[in-house]
Design goal:
The structure holds 3 protein chains of 3 kinds. Chain A is mainly α. Chain A contains 18 helices and 2 strands. Chain A has a two-stranded antiparallel ribbon with strand order 1-2. Chain A is globular. Chain B is an all-alpha fold. Chain B has a single domain (3-93), classed as Helix Hairpins (Orthogonal Bundle), CATH 1.10.287.3510. Chain B is built from 3 helices and no strands. In chain B, helix 1 (3-23) packs antiparallel against helix 2 and helix 2 packs antiparallel against helix 3 (56-86). The longest helix of chain B is centred in the last third of the chain and has 31 residues, at 56-86. By secondary structure, chain C is mainly alpha-helical. Among the domains of chain C are: 277-537, no CATH class; 538-597; 598-628. In chain C, 71% of the residues lie in helices and 3% in strands. Chain C contains 24 helices and 2 strands. In chain C, strands 1-2 form a two-stranded antiparallel sheet. Classes of the chains: A mainly alpha, B mainly alpha, C mainly alpha. The interface between A and C is large, with 70 and 57 residues.
């Protein structure tokens, strides 16, 4: 609760700071400092809430529990890591650095709302607060036509999906007479009206859009590819993870009891997502675009947590969100150092900068889900949740097969770095601070793989 | 009037909006079609609100309007930015990013 | 001593970290010493553990720390120390150490030597983790680690494109197998709620959770698919011959002491499960037998010294799986052990030859090396005698035990297995004779360069040769001695299932039969290689004409049909069948990627159209009855 207010206030402070502070560097430092403050507020929220306590705010429109607070804290931590790693690149995007950081703060406000909403009105507002700044961030590189194109595409399709979301909410309201997600639970399988079912399906489609699940994924590659790389890194990680948590909150709290009514449809969406994401990634030439498809593929795995509707699924979602975010942020941070975003641009990096290549390898191994990295534990937990639930064995096997396919395109980068001749050109000097931060990121990836309990037993 | 009439009317409007968003090439018209979808939702909300005698849905409608206005502000700015570059608002010429 | 078991994998890990982090700074010689000493230290600890386990016969689980704990799921990071794992520890660290020593000399000219030792230590570390883990998850971590290291080592000389492709092939094929392992693991977890051996086998034997026989079979088959990938069985064996791309000591390490025996270990470890899954056990036997025959027949026609050995490994692994399949688990472990000795010997010997030949691997260009490389020649001969199963050498005892168990199971299978064993004798001696006897067929320059290898290479060879001879005496057949040392030792964790003992007279006959035929095969090989056809021997004297006749006869009656068979199998079964399926999958993925990619047209209208169609399909699916 405090965090929502803090994020808004800090965002406004940053916008005003942009008016008075002209030096980009000092704005960035201020932003990082404010993010530290925000993390502090989150931790304050966390420690002042007892483990089993649930608080309600705004006439029961927000419902704050330990899981949500912990998720918010971790996501803020990831944002901080992200800001530290890429603040230099953000300064290079355009002249309005303060606004970019302010928008990131506003997005965080949306993240907090999405993890704590108890009323679909808050869900709607949260999604909009999350999305509208992203339209702007995607188009922030004004000199670049691709960036504008990404922004317009994202905006049109995002607005379209908002329409779908609202239709779902309205139909559910028509069927139940309430917006409160806990009161939806009186829906029952045998007396589910077509209107309620249609509402649920519309909501599922809208969420599928936000988490870029097939066939609502079409915007993802273009937007991620066109948007300035630092902002792609943010959109693909923290934003996506929080959309997932919102998805899961609604579908397990409200519709968990009637899961048999929507599970098959979501399972097909999951299979399609895994297929499209992994298969299309194979043929890409640009690592950035490959990562966009890979984010679709990873979304396919996260959908398992939504599908499973059990306690392990919540844990799986938490660890997946963090492990995936950390590894992807690290990967993007490396990518931003490269001059050429194609696979060939990585040729011979191991020789030129062995440390950077080693870091990249760890991030890629984590994304591919190799044991002893966070990515393995993440995949393990979400698949375990699906196995425990027991209805989706065919999908689990399909997912494992697709994980094998994913090794192909991740390892292509490793191959390029280690086994190919070439002169990988760096865009900027990799400073000692960068190396230190990347090393911390690598450490996080490995710690998550070795001791996932650190973030699960909270 | 029974609430079904409103339901069918707003579903029809929603579908018209959806079709328009799908088929029109002018970015502004696409955007207007999306607004049409939102207004179909608003209509339905109000109808249900009357049915349940519950004001919550009408409040919701206000929120939708406000957020839609915010979206218009951002959206038109993006379209203008695009127009300045390519001197057209035809969305079909936007295909540098593909495959 | 058992409490110190964590030291065993720790030393190689430390070695890896030192060499891996400082590979640019550390001088070559120091890197080799660090690597070797690390393995020696863990060998010493393993030795202590081995003797302790031998005297107490205890089976202990050493708990290190909690790995995963969530809800009902609890997976500790703990090690299982018992007769089976301590035996494997000895094999891995012992032979691993010899290979490290050998590498210090073999790789001393390579600029990446320190990196090489880092990989080698990591490899040993992963393998130790695999063997020591007290639950399937730890085993899986080691399993994947071994796969990763083999990728790094096979592609060690990465400047050659073929080599990196071979590395990729090995990795991908292993991953296919891993998939099976993972599914099997999840099935166990789902049905029993645990991955720990103790609890799982306890529940299996106690029968608290009754599953249908089918379920046991499925779990067992899934695990076996994992073993197929790692231990190179049909249809996933093709990576192993290609894996020869790595440096020769790596081949020795992969083939003899580690990696490929992982599958055997896993099935032996899970014997309690396999005892309940007769169909899966049958499948294991059939796949093993088919692999043994196929690989042996292909080996007959290979000219690359390492390729012959590679196919021979595949074939020997087939024998081990055959033994597992008929329920003779301890026999399979016995063969793992003897095979580790003589296959390491053969590979290191071939490395010594390649070293002397200046990188040449084609046996058509060798010949008569005995004169120049006495020690290598003699030790190689011992290896050949051992693998062929000449009485008195280690291979004889283990192979004989396998054949006897198979005979008791099914005489038809026995005859087929015997055929494979005879082919083994043939190709090994063909290799030996072509390489070490006759006259030299290489260039003058190579001839000049021929020399015996330095002590760091010959000493491991001699040690392994001694082991190849005496290694078999721990498992004397029942007709000679009632006391089977290895079976007694393994008795606390592993016992044969459903294996009938033969009458002594039958066993004598079988033994005599196989020995006689093997010796005959060696003679055939001798004659067949006397005047190698590929050599430019057109100017043959008239005196030799009769011999030509014999050659032709053998060629027509034995060599050519076998050769044709080998060619046919090579060309159709392997190239088109197995490679076709495996490569086809890859191509299918790329092809569909190229098509699916085009859906991304870049047009917003089309994207919205796809979404609308998606919504329509979802509604149609749901409202027309797709439901749980």
């Amino acid at each position: 609760m405090k965090a929502i207010i803090a994020a808004t206030v800090l965002g406004v402070i940053l916008m005003f700071a942009g008016l008075f502070v002209k030096e980009k560097k000092s704005v960035a430092s201020l932003a990082v400092f404010l993010l530290f403050v925000l993390l502090g507020v989150n931790i304050w929220d966390l420690v002042t809430t007892a483990p089993n306590e649930t608080l309600s705010f705004f006439n029961n429109m927000l419902r704050v529990d330990r899981y949500a607070l912990w998720f918010n804290t971790l996501m803020t931590g990831c944002t901080l890591l992200y800001a530290l790693l890429v603040s230099k690149e953000i300064q290079r995007v355009g002249s309005h650095v303060a606004e970019y950081f302010a928008l990131i703060c506003f997005i965080l406000c949306g993240v907090y709302m999405l993890s704590t909403y108890n009323n679909v009105l808050i869900l709607f507002i949260g999604i909009e607060i999350l999305s509208i700044p992203q339209y702007i961030l995607a188009g922030s590189d004004k000199r670049n036509l691709k960036s504008s194109e990404a922004s317009l595409k994202y905006f049109l399709m995002g607005a379209f999906s908002t329409g779908i979301l609202l239709m779902g909410i309205t139909l559910l309201y028509g069927a139940t007479g309430t917006f409160n997600i806990i009161q939806y639970t009186f829906l029952q399988s045998d007396m589910l009206s077509p209107m309620a079912l249609a509402g649920i399906l519309f909501l599922m489609v809208a969420f599928a859009f936000k988490v870029s699940a097939a066939p609502m994924h079409m915007w993802t590659p273009d937007v991620y590819d066109g948007a300035p790389t630092p902002f792609t890194a943010f959109m693909a990680t923290i934003v996506k993870a929080s959309a997932f948590v919102a998805f899961m909150r609604l579908f397990s709290v409200s519709f968990g009891a009637i899961s048999s009514d929507w599970m098959m449809v979501l399972a097909i969406i999951t299979a399609a997502t895994l297929f499209v994401g992994n298969i299309t990634a194979v043929f890409q030439q640009s690592v950035k675009r490959m990562l966009a498809y890979s984010s679709i593929a990873q979304a396919g795995f996260m959908l398992f947590a939504v599908l499973a509707v059990n306690a392990t699924a919540w844990q799986g979602m938490m660890i997946y969100a963090v492990a995936y975010s950390v590894a992807t942020i690290g990967m993007f941070a490396v990518l931003m150092k490269m001059k050429d975003y194609t696979y060939d641009g990585f040729n011979g990096l191991a020789k030129k900068d062995p440390m950077l290549a080693a870091f990249t390898t760890v991030f890629l191994l984590s994304l591919a889900g190799i044991p002893l990295t966070g990515g393995f534990m993440a995949k393990y937990f979400v698949l375990l949740a699906a196995v425990e639930q027991g209805k989706m064995m065919w999908l689990v096997i399909f997912a494992l097969f697709m994980a094998a396919v994913s090794a192909y395109y991740y390892f292509r980068v490793i191959m390029a770095m280690y086994f190919k001749q070439g002169n990988a050109e760096l865009n900027t000097e990799v400073s000692a601070t960068d190396r230190f931060l990347l090393a911390i990121t690598v450490l996080l990836v490995i710690v998550l793989g070795a001791a996932p309990n650190l973030i699960l037993n909270i | 009037m029974p609430v079904q009439y409103y339901l069918f009317l707003s579903l029809a409007l929603f579908c018209i909006g959806m079709m328009g968003a799908m088929m029109r090439r002018n970015a502004i018209i696409v955007f207007m079609c999306i607004e049409l979808m939102l207004n179909a939702v608003n209509l339905l909300m109000v109808a249900f609100s009357k049915m349940y005698n519950d004001a919550a849905a009408q409040i919701f409608v206000f929120f939708i309007m406000v957020v839609a206005a915010a979206e218009v502000a951002v959206g038109l700015a993006i379209i203008v930015m695009m127009y300045r570059k390519v001197h057209s608002v035809d969305i079909n010429i936007l295909n540098r990013l593909k495959h | 001593m058992t409490n110190l078991v964590y030291l065993v994998p720790l030393f190689p890990l430390i070695g890896f970290l030192i060499n891996g982090l400082g590979w640019r700074k550390i001088p070559k010689a120091a890197g080799g010493i660090i690597g070797s000493v690390a393995i020696l230290a863990s060998f010493a600890v393993s030795l202590g553990i081995f003797f302790e386990v031998k005297s107490t016969g205890a089976s202990t689980v050493v708990h290190l720390f909690d790995f995963i704990q969530s809800g009902t799921l609890y997976i500790p990071f703990s090690f299982q120390v018992d007769a089976l794992s301590s035996l494997f520890l000895l094999i891995i660290t012992g032979i691993g150490f010899l290979i490290h020593v050998y590498s210090t000399s073999y790789m001393h000219e390579d600029e990446g030597m320190v990196k090489y030792f880092a990989y080698l230590n990591l490899f040993v570390f992963s393998m130790l983790l695999l063997v020591l883990g007290a639950n399937y998850l730890i085993m899986f971590i080691g399993w994947e680690g071994v796969g990763l290291c083999s990728y790094l080592l096979i592609g060690f000389w990465f400047k050659n494109r073929d080599y990196t492709n071979a590395a990729k092939k090995a990795f991908v094929m292993n991953r296919i197998g891993d998939l099976g392992f993972l599914v099997g693991m999840l099935l166990i977890l789902f049905n029993y709620g645990t991955l720990s051996y103790q609890e799982f086998f306890g529940q299996l034997n106690g029968g608290q959770v009754q599953l249908s026989a089918n379920m046991y079979n499925w779990i067992a088959i899934c695990l076996f698919i994992g073993a197929m990938g790692k231990s190179a069985q049909i249809p996933l064996y093709t990576w192993l011959p290609d894996a020869m791309a790595g440096p020769t000591p790596v081949s020795a390490l992969i083939h003899a002491a580690t990696m490929v025996t992982a599958g055997i270990y896993m099935i032996a470890r899970s014997s309690a499960l396999y005892n309940l899954a007769p169909a899966a056990l049958n499948l294991v036997a059939i796949i093993g037998l088919a692999t043994a025959i196929l690989a042996a027949s292909i080996a007959i026609r290979q000219y690359d010294i390492k390729k012959v050995l590679a196919y021979s490994t595949v074939s020997q692994l087939g024998f081990m799986f055959l033994a597992l399949g008929v329920g003779a688990y301890t026999t399979a472990v016995f063969h793992v052990m003897t095979h580790a000795f003589f296959k390491a010997l053969l590979f290191l010997g071939s490395g010594s030859v390649i070293h002397a030949m200046g990188g040449e691997q084609d046996i058509r260009k060798m010949g008569g090396l005995n004169k120049h490389m006495k020690i290598t020649g003699i030790t190689f001969l011992i290896g050949c005698l051992a693998i062929s199963g000449i009485p008195g050498f280690s291979g004889f005892f283990s192979k004989d035990e396998i054949l006897a168990s198979v005979y008791a199971h099914s005489p038809v299978m026995y005859y087929m297995a015997l055929g494979a064993a005879l082919m083994t004798a043939f190709y090994m001696f063909r290799l030996y004779f072509l390489t070490f006897t006759g006259s030299f067929r290489g260039t003058e320059e190579q001839h000049h360069h021929l020399h015996e290898s330095p002590a760091a290479i010959t000493i491991p060879l001699i040690v392994l040769a001694i082991l190849s001879v005496v290694g078999g005496y721990v498992g004397l057949p029942p007709v000679i001695s009632e006391h089977h040392t290895l079976n007694t030792y393994l008795g606390s964790v592993l016992s044969n299932f459903n294996v009938h003992h033969l009458e002594h007279s039958t066993e004598w006959i079988l033994m005599g039969l196989s020995t006689g035929l093997v010796i005959a095969m060696i003679i055939v090989a001798r004659v067949a290689t006397k005047n190698p056809k590929f050599a430019e021997n057109t100017g043959l004297a008239k005196v030799l004409e009769n011999k030509w006749y014999v050659d032709e006869l053998y060629d027509a009656v034995i060599v050519r049909p076998l050769g044709v068979l080998a060619d046919v199998l090579d060309r159709f079964a392997e190239k088109m069948g197995v490679d076709g399926v495996v490569n086809g999958t890859g191509r299918l993925v790329r092809w569909s990627s190229d098509r699916v990619r085009l859906l991304q047209t870049g047009q917003v209208g089309f994207y919205i159209f796809v979404m609308v169609i998606g919504i329509a399909v979802i509604f149609a699916l749901r409202f027309f009855g797709l439901n749980y």
